Every structure is written in structure tokens, then in C-alpha cells.
Amino acid sequence: MFDTLGDQDRERLRDVINRLMAVNFLLKALERERYALARRLRPQLEEFFKFLGWEITFDERHECIAVASPEGMHRRPLSREESIWLLLLRLIYQEKRQSLSLSEYPTTTLNEIRAKYETFRLPLFTKSRLVDLVRLGVHYKLMDALDEDVRADNCRFRLFHSLQHAIDGEVLETLHGKIMRYEISGEEGMFDEVAETPALD
Questions:
Q1: Which residues contact 162 (CB under 8 A, 6 or more apart)?
Q2: Stated pTM of the model
Q3: Which of 6, 118, 162, 176 has its CA 20 to 30 A from that of 190?
Q4: Domain residue ranges of the chain, discontinuous segments joined by +
């Protein structure tokens, strides 16, 4: 599979593969050298993940590479609280990206995220739990903090295009339907089934 590669390329490709299998995503904005290598050695990467039965997506438009294991076999189970956090980030991402160019990433603030929780009458996270939730998003290359104190109301977060692959449009559409029903009728338990929707490999 990698017989035609030199020792240095094999070592670097091994690093890229381990990275993708650990966090699912490779973003040019965060890891330019790894991303460039992955694009250059795309045939080898595709052959490797095809052999494993994994899906690999080269999203050239958003400069993002994503992998997913078959039938979610290696997915990290998310708690309901983590699922709600990621779904609301995805919703904010979708709302904000429509007015931006492809080269721009949507940004939000902790205050805006809290406002979403309040809109849907969801219990707010504690300050210590917030740090864990931010760490989850950062680890999986879904977001990063643009300010040092993530617990400050005006702390800004950059939302990456990888959110589109972590939580697909069908899940988002389901969420929009729940939101619409909630706004019209005050439906209870809007997020009761959320813990089963997003998952990370």
C-alpha cells in the first residue's frame, strides 16, 4: 500500500492517519502541513481507510478532511449535556455562516451560547462543566477559543466547518423541527432524544 513512498513520507503519513483516527478531522486552518501532506498522498489515504471500511471525505471547499468508522463502531458516546452543547453550536454555526464567505469562520460568544440555552429553557452548565464542554469541542477540531478566559461572557469562539460533518444536515433539520414546534406550542422535552443523535468517532 505504501511501498512506493520514501521513509519520511511513510512516517508523516502514519502521523496523519493516527491523527485522523484520534480526532476525526484534519483542518487546514489548524494543521497546514498535515493537511498539505494528506492532500498530496490522497490516493494512499483513501486506499488505507477503504481497507479498514472507514469513510474518508476530502472537503476541498471547506479545506477539511473527515473520517468516520462503519456504523459508528468506534464512536465516543456523548452524554445528553454534551449532545445538546454540540447541537446548539451546530445551530449557531448554520445561522451565522450564511452571511459569510467561504474563507471566513463563524464566531460566537459565550453570551450568545447561553442565550440559546435560555431560549429553549435548558439548564445551564456550571463554570467547571463549561471548561469540559469547550475542551470537547477543541479536541475534536469543531471549535476553538479566541480569548483566554472561556468562562467570560464576552469570550469569543471560532466555529469550524467540521461541524457540518460531525452533525449532518438531517440531524440539524430534525432539530429545527423541534425548535419550530417548541416556539409555536411550547413543546416540552424538546431535547429529550438529543443524546442519541450526534456522535464522534
A1: 24, 25, 27, 64, 66, 140, 141, 142
A2: 0.83
A3: 162
A4: 7-72, 80-196
DSSP letters, 97-160, are HTTS-TT---EEEHHHHHHHHHHTTPPPPPHHHHHHHHHHHHHTTSEEESSS-TTSTT-EEEE-
- pLDDT for 27-41, tens place per residue? 999 999 999 999 999
Considering the domain 80-196, what is its CATH architecture?
Answer: Orthogonal Bundle (1.10)
* C-alpha distance from residue 197 to each of 19, 57, 77, 122, 200 (Å): 24, 20, 10, 17, 10
Spacing of C-alpha 157 from chain mean position: 13
Measured CA to CA, the distance from residue 188 to residue 10 in angstroms comes to 54
CA–CA gap between residue 117 and residue 129 (Å, rounded): 15
